[in-house]
Amino acid sequence: LGFKRSKGGQEWKKKINDVIIRRVQFNFNLNEKERWIGIIPTLNVWHKNIQELKVSAGILDQRYYKDSATVALILNNLCGEKSYNYNLGTNPEGIVDELTSDISKFGLPVFTNLENLDWILKNLSSNNPKEWCVPSASDRARLIPLILYIKGRYGEGLRAIKQLKDGLVTRDQIIPDINHFEKWFLKLNHN
Q1: Residue 142 and residue 147: Cα distance in Å, rounded?
Q2: How many degrees, rounded to 5, is the angle at CA 132 between CA 127 and CA 138?
Q3: CA–CA dist 130, 128 (Å, integer)
Q4: Nearest-5° angle of CA 65, CA 128, CA 175?
Q5: pTM of the predicted structure, to 2 decimals
Q6: Could you give phi then psi for residue 10, rounded to 5 degrees?
Q7: What are the distances in angstroms from CA 153 to CA 34, 102, 149, 157, 164?
Q8: Is 160 helix (H, G, I), strand (E, B) or coil?
Q9: What is the pLDDT of residues 45-72, one digit of tens each?
Q10: Percent of the chain beyond pLDDT 70?
């Protein structure tokens, strides 16, 4: 499939071109008392142009520019809320076979969507946060305007900020806050 894992890493990467990198990342949780391990496979895509704007806006620290996902979906949700919980002592080959099968069947096809800015905009337009390819309303309120700006639709991006920030007044989770982001975005029109 062309994915490569760095030594000691928890993710496999595949560079599509100079602006897109696909990644499959695995997070783990261990329940020692009940003796099981949970695996959370995430499919994410790194978009260079969006990441550069996030750094410029102060949303993303330059140190994490390459490591941070732009958009992501959890495999469990793509498979109908399936869980990957295994009793300690379960045959590892069976776990690998199940994960590989589900990633191939449900995960790989979604990468094309996660690379497509129009699809991302449509995804983030959903009223159901479980469908979003970002973790929070705060991320959504920044990503939609950035994509609209990249697509040459600055005015729509500015309107989107004004509309989306109303829902963030008391629960904005990103620093700098949405008002700072809006001021930064306004300056883009003058560059």
Answers
A1: 9
A2: 85
A3: 5
A4: 35
A5: 0.88
A6: -110, 15
A7: 52, 37, 5, 6, 16
A8: helix
A9: 999 999 999 999 999 999 999 889 999 9
A10: 98
